[in-house]
UniProtKB/TrEMBL annotation:
Active site, UniProt feature: 329, 329 (nucleophile)
Organism: Sulfurovum riftiae
Binding-site positions, S-adenosyl-L-methionine: 194, 223, 244, 304
InterPro entries associated with the record: MeTrfase_TrmA_AS, SAM-dependent_MTases_sf, TrmA_MeTrfase, U5_MeTrfase_fam
Protein name as catalogued: tRNA (Uracil-5-)-methyltransferase
Keyword set, alphabetical order: Methyltransferase, S-adenosyl-L-methionine, Transferase, tRNA processing
Lineage, uppermost ranks: Bacteria, Pseudomonadati, Campylobacterota, Epsilonproteobacteria, Campylobacterales
Amino acid sequence: MICKHFGSCGSCGLYDLSYPEQLQRKEERVSSLLAPFYTEELEVFDSPASHYRARSEFRIWHEGDRCDYAMGNIEKKGAVTIAECPKVIEPIEKRMWKLLEKINASPEVLKQRLFSVEFLATTTDECLITMLYHRRLDDVWASEARLLEAELNCKIMGRSRKQKVILSDEFVTEKLEIDGRTFTYVQYESGFTQPNPVVNVKMIEWAITQAKKVGHGDFLESYCGLGNFTLPLSHYFEKVLATEISKRSIHAALENCKLNGIDNITFTRLASEEMTEALNGVREFSRLKGIDLKSYNFSTVLVDPPRAGLDEGTIKLISNIDNIIYISCNPETLARDLETLTLTHEVKEAAMYDQFPHTEHVESGVFLVRK
C-alpha cells in the first residue's frame, strides 16, 4: 500500500517497512512471546495490503470555508488532514469523498458543527455512514440527509448528545463464505465487528480446523459478540452456550442465529465473570431462567477476550474443559494467561492473524488440549 500521508498520519506506523517485512516483524514478536509454550512454526495469515478495513472513523477538521477528514498526527500532537485513505475497503472509499463534497456544499445543514464521520461497510457493498454533531439535528437535516442516502446508495444516521436519528436502518448485512457455507451477519452501528473481513474469515476457518479435531460434545463461548465465531462453529458440536455482556451484541447474535437457520445455540447476556459464577453454581441469574446448565457437557471452549486478557476465575473455569481455543488481540496478555493454562493443557497449534497491516497491532490464537 502506498499513501501520501505515510509519516504524518498516525493511523499507520509501519509505513517504512514493506508488507512482507511487517509480517516477519510481527511473527517474530508473537513467536518470541509464545516460545515458552510452543516451539513449532506459527501459522501466519496475511491481509490484503490495501483496501482491507471495513469500518473506519474520521475527525472532521474545519478550517476557513471548508472541512476535511482528519486523523491524529503520528507524533500525537494535533491532527493531519487527509486526501486519501487506501486502507478502507472500496464500498467506503467510493462514498467517502463524494460525501465530503456534499458536506462542504451544505454549510448551513450537513456541515454545521459536524465533528466526526464513521463508516461501517460490507463486502457486499452495503455502507452505513454515521455523522456526529455538536448540535441537535432537526427535520431540515433529516430531509437533506435522505437525499444524500439516495445519491450515495447508502444508509445514513445522525448522532448528537442524547439524540440518534435513524433514517432507514442502523445496521448493515454482511455475507461471508466460510468453510464452504454462506453465513449472514447483521452488524449494528454501535456493536463490535471484526474490522478486516478477509482476515476474519481466515481466523474463523482456523478455529473451525481446531474444532473439527474434537468433533464431539458441547461448545462454550465467552465474549461471543454478534456470533462471529459462534455461528460457523456451531455446526461441529451438539449444543452451544455463548455469552456476551453487550445487550446490542446479544440482540444481533439472536437475529443472526435466526437468519442462518441455526437452532442449537443458546445466547445469554453474561459477563465473563458472571459466566464463571453461573457454571460453578455460585450465583443464579434471572437471565438464565429456563436454561439447564447441568445439561451441557462441554468438550471445547472458545474465548476471545479484550486486550486485558482473561480474569483469574475464567482461567480456572476453562482449565476444566478438555479443549481450549483462545483468540487474542494482545499477545502479551495471551502469553501471561498461558503461564497458568499450560499447567493443565498443552498448546497444540498457534497462529497469527494480521488484521491491522501497517500497524504494530497483531491478533493471535492458540489451540490447547488437556494433558
